[in-house]
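Q:
My hope is that you can spare some time for a protein that puzzles me. I hope you can help me see how the letters and the tokens relate. Thank you; the sequence and its tokens follow:
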Amino acid sequence: MKNRICALIVVITLLLTGCSGKAPKTPAVDITEGLVYDETDNTWSTTDEEWKYLVYRMKQDNERCRDMKGVRILATDDKVIFISGLSAVDKDGKKADAYTTYEIGSVTKMFTATCILQLAERGKLSISDTLDKYFPEFEKGKEITIFDVLHMQAGLEREFFPDSAYYKPDGSVDEDFTRKYYTDGFTDKELLKSLFSLDLLYKPGTDCRYSNAGYILLAMIIEKVSKMSYSKYVQKNIFDVCGMTHSSSMKKGDLTSVPEEDKTFTEFKIGELFGSLYFQDPKTGRGAGDIHSCAADMILFDRALIGGKLINQDSLKIMFDLQIKSINEYYDKKMDYGCGWTTHPVVPFAGGVDVYSHSGKTMSYSTDSLYCKSEHHGNVYLIQFCSAVTDKTSEYMNICDKSIIDALSVKYW
């Protein structure tokens, strides 16, 4: 039963969207400018000899992952190396490209962490603040700091309700409850009342367990401190700063990608349960999985973040100071978690390469964000989107991740 609950909860997390969005603005600079387009496989490649080998590796990986429908982009701080639209089309039937938008799922967490660290730099909060400062009714919050929540070591449940709430006594999915939860059927007050009534899983700071509810609490703190909605804060302080013209927070109706019909590993048909393959829950997923974006915008975010445009170097050190604790119940392994970033599950390290990543899954989409700090080749970023959630999806993304990480560990090509 526990495995079934894990499979359901892992996929049902990070869910999105609110009100209808405006049409994306035209980017100031087309990220494909200067790249060579190959219509036969819908790819854009640099002609720079320095990166010729990585282009070769990406094309090889595409051949190995022909069934994957989505977009990939590989870039450095100042150059786009490769873009591919993997057998995918957008809502208008056009081939997918760097500006096709997707649900990014839990990759949203690196945005939320960035917002918190920005507010700390501005003196609006401290990451050593305890949660009772922002939620006085949360008695156990006296033991939990914002630092703990950022690093997934707060002792909080994964969601606002216990795992058992999603199932009926006979073990079948409680569709009424699940539908209510993921279509904003509960108020913030009801969500908080449920979470605050639950026992902590462990003493804060002594262990590590993934929590979406924790990052949604961070989004609520951002709203309280900034006196802005989470979506407006992210728009003003990240999207606008980075020039991310195809990204949104807490919106619906603005995605241009097309998810594959119910190709997930859930125990029910998404379309039948929710009436849509896109989610309808701006509150439930905010801060943990609500953002929509595209490959081009995600590269702009990575470059701005690592380049110190969004937070300073001291904050970056905190963000990438991965806290290593043992994980109980869900994973039989160690988890290294920073602020919205973790180690790669397949390739946690490689010679001469520091590897950081975060994946994201919604009901209909998979995302993978990889940041490699290479001794030999500088900063390299790989973003992957896929319009499906299957066992194969993670396998395909890991194939590409491992291929690039291995290549970057070699000094000369």
About this structure: The mean pLDDT is 89.
